[in-house]
Amino acid sequence: MSDLFAASMAGQHTHLAAQAGVLHGFALPFAEALLAGIDAALAAAPLRHLVTPGGHVMQVAMSNCGGFGWVSDRRGYRYDRLDPQTGQPWLAFPEGFLQLAGKAAAAAGFAGYVPDACLINRYAPGTRLSLHQDRDEDDRVAPIVSVSLGLPATFLFGGLARGDKPVRVPLLHGDVVVWGGVDRMRFHGVLPVMPGRHPQLGAQRINLTFRKVR
Ligand code: SIN
Ligand code: FE2
Q1: Which pLDDT tens digit goes with each residue over 140-166?
Q2: Ligand 1, closest atom to CA 171?
Q3: How high does pLDDT run on average in the chain?
Q4: Which pick of 69, 154, 164, 202 has the fewest CB atoms within 10 Å?
Q5: Could you give the CA distance from residue 34 to residue 29 in angstroms, rounded to a whole number?
Q6: How many C-beta neighbours within 10 Å does residue 154 have?
Q7: C-alpha 188 to ligand 2 mean position (Å)
Q8: Distance 189 CA to ligand 2 centre (A)
């Protein structure tokens, strides 16, 4: 057993709030399956920079897999069963995706988690994600399971009000953040990703966020 795998088996967790925490290295045993699944999902639905209702082009490049995909345009934010760019359904969850999401949620205290959407966010160096709440899902209690791959990043984890000062959480390839229940609506974001090269992913960070939409 590799040291990294042993570390993830040992279950190093960082507590963030009553129902939120970081599972360090939890996704490492799934990394190969996740990277293959991301390639397949992006072949079906290429990364794109969405436009916000306010007319801004998002820095993060996005796509989706699973039953629903999060999309944004001048009309607003919403979940759609079809990719508006191709008119086709998003790729169904690739092998390993539901297993990882379910196991990570269970390890964080949320048994029986079955998400129906997975956003794929690609951060080039310099890209940030401003503080926001995930509020387009019907289910505001089921956890968000957020998987970091590639370049490291600093995650901002705030409170239930926009003005609450966020804590800074360093995230590495393979880390999984879970927040749900009373902490589901916390503001969060990502500081600009520092330049670098990751052995598997090169000069980028890819984040998967699993959500339960319906
Ligand atoms: C998100 O809030 O959707 C993504 C968070 C992250 O990239 O870590
Ligand atoms: Fe988010």
Answers
A1: 999 999 999 999 999 999 999 999 999
A2: 8
A3: 95
A4: 202
A5: 10
A6: 15
A7: 6
A8: 7
Q: Which atom of ligand 1 is nearest to the CA of 60?
A: 7
pLDDT digit string, tens, across residues 75-129 = 999 999 999 999 999 999 999 999 999 999 999 999 999 999 999 999 999 999 9
Q: Where are the domains of the chain?
A: 3-211
Q: How far apart are CA 148 and CA 31, in angstroms?
A: 10
pLDDT recorded at residue 201: 98
Res 10: pLDDT: 54
| Cα three-residue angle 193-91-123, rounded to 5 degrees | 5
At residue 11, the pLDDT reads: 77
Cα of 1 from ligand 1 centre, angstroms:
30
Q: How far is CA 143 from CA 46, 114, 186, in A?
A: 26, 10, 11
Distance 139 CA to ligand 1 centre (A): 18
Domain 3-211 coded CATH 3.30.420.340: no
The residue to which tokens 């996740």 are assigned = 34
